[in-house]
Amino acid sequence: MITDQQFAEIVETRARRPEVFAELARGRKRRPEFDDGRGLFLITADDAARANLQIGANPIALGERKRLLNRLAEVLADPAVDGLVGTPDIVDDLLLLGALHDKLVIGSMNRSGLAGSSWEIDDRFTAYDVAAIVGGNLDGGKLTLRLDWKDAGTNRTMAAAAAAITDLGRAGTVGLLEPLPVIQEGGRPRVANDPDYLIRALSVAAGMGATSAYTWLKVPLVREMESVMAATSMPVLMVGGDPGVDDRTAVARWQEILGLPQVRGIIAGRSLLFPADGDTARAVATVAEALGK
Prior knowledge:
This protein is α/β, with parallel strands linked by helices. It has one domain (39-291): TIM Barrel, CATH 3.20.20.70. 38% of the residues lie in helices and 18% in strands. It has eleven helices and nine strands. Strands 1-2-3-4-5-7-8-9 form an eight-stranded parallel beta barrel, surrounded by five helices. α9 packs parallel to α11.
């Protein structure tokens, strides 16, 4: 549990000793390899930077930083959890708390497509850039690419994402790319969960950048996952999370998909950090069980 004193020290450090963050990043103990073959389990913590703060009925639940850090520190302390995807503010706070040693740390890059905004698909790079990821001793960069055939913002984001994938690959650093097919519904973009749409999105993602050697994909769980995975030879992290009340069914389905050679692990976000029943330890243990950890 993060104490009031620890949180106050984070604020004090930001105000008076900002150079500490770079020192902690350089001194962070890194894992010897990205994929150790045991099934990766990553936590995402970049929703808040896209104004996506809602959990359940609470529209600003992720807006309480100490609560979020508490939950992240708790989950990252579990040896089954391999690492974090986060924006610079989250990563810096967790560095100060000493929560990122021996963990994979992937910097979230493009966060300007604010949830509910008129420019949501034009998701420009406003968080980490490649230089900060490489210089900050991180293990990779994460990019979201929402593909909307009727929004020109898609093309701008594609060009920027392709350049980032190229630069990450040339630096020998993993680029975790999340391609999401989007359709307009009621004047707002919605991720399409149709397998055919996702297959098209994965096909586009595979051809991005001047090198694909270090590209990984983040893929949502949809029906007909076997057909979806057949669209790519790239390593994939499947989106998981709160298994809900029927955790046996969730584990069985996850294990079925984890049996596919492309699927290298599970990546989970706020639904796991703040599950409906409030039992984060149970949610983490259920995902770990599916991974055989």
